[in-house]
Amino acid sequence: MVELTMLKLWLGIILLFITFFSNAAGAFIGINIGTDLSNLPSAMDVVAILKAHQITHVRLFDADAHMLTALSDTGIEVMVSVTNEEILRIGQSPSVAAAWINKNVAAFLPSTNITAIAVGSEVLTSIPNAAPILVPAMNYLHKALVASNINDQVKVSTPQSMDVIPRPFPPSTAAFNATWNSTIFQMLQFLKNTNSFYMLNAYPYYGYVDSDGIFPIEYALFRPLSSVKQIVDPNTLFHYDSMFDAMVDATYNSIAAFNLSGIPIVVTETGWPWFGGTNEQDASIENAETFNNNLIRRVSNDSGPPSQPDIPINAYIYELFNEDKKAGPVSERNWGIIFTNGSTVYPISLSNSDSVSKNSSGVFCVARQDVEDKKLQSGLNWACGQGQANCTAIQTGQPCYFPDTLQNHASYAYNDYYQKMHSIGGTCDFDDTAMTTSQDPSYGSCKFTGRSISSTGGLFPSPAFGPVGPSSQGPIVRAFSVVFVLVIVLSLVIVDVNIYNTL
């Protein structure tokens, strides 16, 4: 009897250690993948880009079967979405919800690592008439997950914009729009009961632009604030170093106003456009680079906002590619951080280090964006033929074949020709389909040679500057730590039981 009691005690300790280490995995940075673009790469090419940049978490705006298949056996955590158009039928029929789960989630597990379902997108503010069926839809989907015994792995929530909080500053007095009190309370109870999380779309870009100069640009971009520009909540005296943190805290306080706690917040969308119209001067490549790199550093420090310092903030950057088919202002089509050829729009690192994906000491020749396919094909043919570029790396099965796009292949061929021939007069033109850049287009195992612009000149192999993972601890380190602790604890259990057997 004593042995059994001690064994239960040690097993409890083991579970405590497991819980501790699983919670200590560190915050992550993910990416949203929109598909409203003219030249969307194939699903396999998209996944190749994700892997090349070591992106570990993605959010889809639907549940596309091709993408979910391509993501299988990658280990990438996937958030799928119920579109706004699907909510009405799902919210009115448990059988429709069950069919949706069977088709879009259960059919792909466990090969595809689906971990969450986003029900709609900013439903309360974009399609307010659907508010009465939002929580029923979430409930029906969750019950379908329970029926398939996958509710522990896959959580259900719904992304909401900051617009549901009319006055987010100061954060201490923030509250949800009373119009939605009934729906939001039901939603929060659901999240609490199912151990899920609140999905928040938080855009400091809009917060800054709409503030008409009330807040300094440094506050929106995570830049240090001077002593005369400090942002302080007058009620709590909390200092806010960024608008991002203030938005998250405003949401935590809005949740607390319903006397609910223990619901973590995941930022499902945030980012900064890198190009805009003549009246959108804050949408610049410099601001976008600053915001997203500082966001990554902020998330990677594994801390929460001032009111919840011990709850790290997971965040998904909006977005992977520019969606050129979107309507609205110019900035709406320029949020992407990666071009469809796999190169980054601006230097960025998804790791928690200070390095960024660039090579400031090299010059590369790459294909221009928005060039006619016919002209690109001609340039590619010339480079690999008469130009004598080594195009082996872009053949099937070779390291630069994916993404299998004309622009990617042309960029590699153009660059190889340019590096070999520049010293004897070769140019980076190719009938005006190419341009030089100091940004290294290498990705994963696909390496572009760069021409040194140092005083010594010469050629050198360019390293890949892909991110090294978003969490503060690598998965191998965390796995080793957990195994190490378990071995020690299990050894103690065995010793303890043997001791009591001899008594």
Summarize the structure.
This protein is α/β, with parallel strands linked by helices and 503 residues long. Helices cover 38% and strands 12% of the residues.
Q: Could you explain the architecture of this structure?
A:
- By secondary structure, this protein is α/β, with parallel strands linked by helices.
- The chain folds into two domains: 27-333, TIM Barrel (Alpha-Beta Barrel); 362-461, Methane Monooxygenase Hydroxylase, Chain G, domain 1.
- The protein is 38% helix and 12% strand.
- The protein is built from 15 helices and 15 strands.
- It has helices at residues 2-23, 43-52, 65-70, 84-92, 94-106, 123-126, 131-147, 181-193, 204-209, 217-220, 243-256, 285-300, 373-384, 406-421, 475-502, and strands at residues 29-33, 57-60, 77-82, 114-119, 155-157, 159-161, 198-201, 231-232, 239-240, 265-270, 314-317, 362-367, 434-437, 449-452, 459-461.
- A nine-stranded parallel β-sheet has the order 5-4-3-2-1-11-10-7-6.
- β6 (159-161), α8 (181-193) and β7 form a beta-alpha-beta unit.
- The radius of gyration is 25 Å and the shape is globular.
- The two termini are 12 Å apart.
Keywords for this entry:
TIM Barrel, 15 strands, GPI-anchor, 503 residues, Methane Monooxygenase Hydroxylase, Chain G, domain 1, alpha/beta, signal, hydrolase, globular, disulfide bond, four-stranded antiparallel sheet, nine-stranded parallel sheet
